[in-house]
Amino acid sequence: MSVPVLTHRRDLRPGDLIFPEEILRIGRTLDFQLGCVSKEVQQEMFGQELDTSSLCDWLNLHTAYDFA
């Protein structure tokens, strides 16, 4: 499976990302969702190539972190 690589736009700043839902521990992993605080922040960080306006106002990043 090919995954597109987005060029780096700017570094994250405090407050750019939010945790809209509870962080869950499932077995040895932490399962959580990250969201950008606004569409403007999303575009500053990821660029115009990542336009979610037809879907919603948010870019949701889903992550599972294995802490074993």
TL;DR?
Helix content is 12%, strand content 29%. With 68 residues, it is α+β, with helices and mostly antiparallel strands. Strands 1, 2, 3 and 4 form a four-stranded antiparallel β-sheet that branches.
Task: Explain what you see.
It is a single chain. By secondary structure, the chain is an alpha+beta fold. It has one domain (17-66). It is 12% helix and 29% strand. The protein contains one helix and four strands; from the N terminus they run βββαβ. It has one helix spanning 39-46; strands at residues 17-18, 24-26, 29-36, 60-66. Strands 1, 2, 3 and 4 form a four-stranded antiparallel sheet that branches. A hairpin with a 2-residue loop joins strand 2 (24-26) and strand 3 (29-36). The mean pLDDT is 75.
